[in-house]
Amino acid sequence: MWRIGEAAQRAGVSERTLRYYEEIGLVAPASHSPGGNRRYGDAEVARVLRIRELQELMGFNLDEIRAVLCTEDRLETLRSRWWASDDPGQRREILEEGIAATLPLRDRVAQKRTRLSEFLDELDRKIARYDELLSELGATHAPVGDDTHV
Q: For the whole model, what pTM was predicted?
């Protein structure tokens, strides 16, 4: 178990960020010391890393992240119920509930992917137009990074 500063450092966030995530219900300390200090374990640090990944990779805001985490928590509960049962009827219900929990999240990601694709297309059109104008001036641009737009 780590104190808040150690956990924050392991997760690559500030102590203030970790406290804020706790305040809004995204993460909770695993326990508290006898003096009341927060203690975090591997699971809590992994959750903060997941939050950061969803922010950076997916561009999700904190409300969207809350929805993802709630879905993931629900799926973990369902996974435990699955392994605790060998009743085919109960397992069928668990799978149906898992699908129902996952579909809204999948739809949200698909919408975000569509918006990102549209934005990328817009940028490609701008670059193509700038290339056109450069060509009219008898110049070309030096490619920067991946120039799949050409």
A: 0.78
Number of domains in the chain: 1
**Beta carbons of 140 and 147 less than 8 angstroms apart:** no
Exposed, middle or buried by CB within 10 Å (0-12, 13-18, 19+), for 19? middle
Dihedral of the alpha carbons of 127, 131, 137, 138, in degrees to the nearest 10: 150
How far apart (Å, rounded) are the C-alpha atoms in residues 78 and 84?
10
The CATH number of the domain where 45 resides is what?
1.10.1660.10
* β-bridge partners, 99: none
Average pLDDT over residues 59-77: 95
CB-side neighbour CA atoms (13 Å) of 83: 5
Q: Residue 17 belongs to what domain range?
A: 1-57
d(CA 124, CA 50) in angstroms, rounded, equals: 31
